[in-house]
Amino acid sequence: MMDQEIASAITSELFHHQDPAHIRIMNTRRNAKGVITAITHQNATAEIALRYLDIIITATRTVDKVVVDVEENESWERLKIHRVHLVPYIGKGTDGLQKMREEFEIENKGVTIPSQVQWLANPRSMRQRWQNGEIAVSSVVFVVKGSKVAKGFVKKSIKAAGVWYRVDTYSNAGSDSRCELCCG
Question: How many CB atoms are located within 10 Å of the residue 45 CB?
Answer without folding.
Answer: 11
